[in-house]
Specification:
CATH topology of the largest domain: Purple Acid Phosphatase, chain A, domain 2
Radius of gyration: 22 Å
Shape: globular
CATH superfamily of the largest domain: Metallo-dependent phosphatases
Strand order of the largest sheet: 4-3-2-1-11-12
Distance between the termini: 43 Å
Number of strands: 15
CATH class of the largest domain: Alpha Beta
Number of domains: 3
Amino acid sequence: MKVAIITDQHFGARKNSKLFHDYFLKFYNDVFFPTLEENGITTVVDMGDTFDSRKGIDFSALSWAKNNYYDRLQEMGVKVHTIVGNHTAYYKNTNHVNAVDLLLREYANVTVYSEPTEVLLDKLKVLFIPWINQENEANTLKLIEKTSCKCAMGHLELSGFRVNKQIVMEHGLESKLFEKFSHVFSGHYHTRSNNGTVFYLGNPYEMFWTDVGDTRGFHIFDTETVTHKPVNNPYRLFYNIYYEDTNYQTFDTREYENKIVRVIVRKKSDIKKFEKFVDKLYASNIAELKIIENFAIQESEEFEAFESEDTLTILNRYIEESEINLDKSKIQNLLQEIYQEACELV
């Protein structure tokens, strides 16, 4: 049997941004649902962080999620297994109060897992592992030790895997705790990475500048062969444009309509021509434009910021190359959290 695995959908993201939801919807309408229909898939495993905010949801965002996702899955007769992630658990030390359980009770085809549970997918027994916290950690580790499941799916924070293209997580549980499984699939980190046993599958679409150019989508899992293959999302939201006295008259701006664009200036000999270049971008109805001509962190001869780097990359590298006598990984993770929260205020 073929099963669709999707994770970290973050409905309601960026303060229920219409721009982001329109971008999400293009993926669901053009990629996700057609793939389910073409492959006769009637089971979806959602590995966590279905909704973006653990504190609440905008009614409009909930309506969007139901109308464009859950109602359609229900109409198609698709069974949905939903695992609680850290963004859907209200408290940090327990999963019992969670968004997916409270918001989706009307859907008989949706089952929510707030505790580790052995589930039969066709003939394959799989261990579902929701977000591990203070309350459920001992029970979760005990079940991992005694289970006969060869495959696990969950929302895990493991060390040694990429959070995004720039950061490798240096704290969290050790992956050796899951060595008994032949395959472990997880959400939580939005970029794809694996060590041959543990597979972080990544989220379906770009959400931050750190995602630019990073392949996104979902996966099809075969319960008989215990193999998975990606279905990539061809649509992008974030674009870098490198300006080097670029001819505005011949520059094609059509693909940037309703996109978030960053112009990185490498060479600007004529200000008026540059202004016309920018005017042409605005005329193409871009959603947001940022222009980068210099960098804030250029204070020492030992550190150089490059125009191809985004803000978070520069900060992380600055910390890594500094001589501070502190846990650099914790500072980097804290900066990432602050940066992403700041992005959501935009």
